[in-house]
Amino acid sequence: MPAFLIHTIPGFEEWKTNARHCLTQKIPPSQIQWQSHYEDANLNLFASEPIDDHKKPFSNPPAARDLKVPRSFMELAQIVICHNSPERFALLYRVVWRLLHENRLLLDYQTDSDMRQLVAMAKAVRRDAYKIKALLRFREVLHNDKNHFVAWYEPEHYTLELALPFFQERFKNMSWSILTQYRSAHWDREKLILTETADKAVYPNEDAVEAYWVQYYASIFNPARLKTKAMLSQMPKKYWKHMPETAQIESLIHNASQQVMVMISKQNQI
Predict the structure, then answer these.
(1) Higher pLDDT, 101 or 269
(2) Domain total for the chain?
């Protein structure tokens, strides 16, 4: 049983090269084992062949002239590959195998079990990438005697790269670094550099502007319009650690009813 150990994150190019090799050799999905070096260090001891542990994939990938698949699949695959599920490699190979050998229109069958899973994973990745743009908070530090902005964020999936174009455009005149648990991005107003390491210790504990932002958030909080369930559906507690203003949410919710009573009593005064 061929087995491939994906070393890169999220691993699209590495998966594509290995998948092309297997498709050329007409190896069905059930005969291939996919694993991620980053996600699972415990290799399958029952594999009939050892895990391919080469840092580089096949040096001479086979010709792809007979392996044409819809461009929409390749675009979707580049999104799905950012999901944190170790099953993403096998799922993508199974779908591309079925596109070539079973049904060229498979992508249109939204009720198909593989397609449902693929679409659900893509949706989760896109939502996670959106959350980075919405919830990430920078803190200001001095770096080489210059102002530099640092953010620490822990995405649920491998979505940092998907969100970077937004930050390059929105904050193109700032020098900033975004640190995640698997990779870091650094922008110096001219070029973007990705590094494979991230040290959370360089992220400051507080920022001079944060106190004003927290005060502003408390001032615009309207207890009379509080809808806790709706708020939590849009911003679950797992995201609260990324935002300084969320430190006071629980106290604001707890005191909401009392604040409403005060507001009503003031309205009833002559």
Answers:
(1) 101
(2) 3
Q: Distances in Å between the alpha carbon of 76 and those of 92, 95, 128, 161? A: 10, 11, 15, 15
DSSP class of 52: B
Instruction: Tell me what percent of the residues of the chain surpass a pLDDT of 70.
Output: 66
The domain boundary, picked from 157, 173, 202, lies at 202
Domain boundary among 144, 170, 202: 202
Judge whether 211 lies within some domain. no
DSSP-assigned letter for residue 76 = H
Residue scoring higher pLDDT (231 or 153):
153
Instruction: Say which DSSP state 63 is in.
Output: P
Do the domain assignments include residue 208? no
* One domain, residues 197 and 105: no
- pLDDT tens column, 10-27: 999 999 999 999 999 999
Is the four-CA dihedral 244, 247, 248, 250 of positive or negative sign?
Answer: positive
Q: Mean pLDDT across the stretch 155-181?
A: 95
- Same structural domain, 140 and 183: yes
The candidate with the shortest Cα–Cα distance to 185, out of 216, 158, 209, 206, is: 158
Q: What are phi and psi of 135, to 5 degrees?
A: -110, -10
Q: Would you mind telling me the total number of residues written for the chain in this entry?
A: 270
Q: Is the pTM of this model over 0.85?
A: no
Helix (H) / strand (E) containing 214: helix 210-220
Output the six-digit token pair for 164.
């970077």
Q: Find tokens 């959106």 and name the residue.
A: 130
Tell me the longest C-alpha to C-alpha distance in the chain. 86
| Residue 73 and residue 147 share a domain | no
Domain of 167, in residue numbers: 136-202
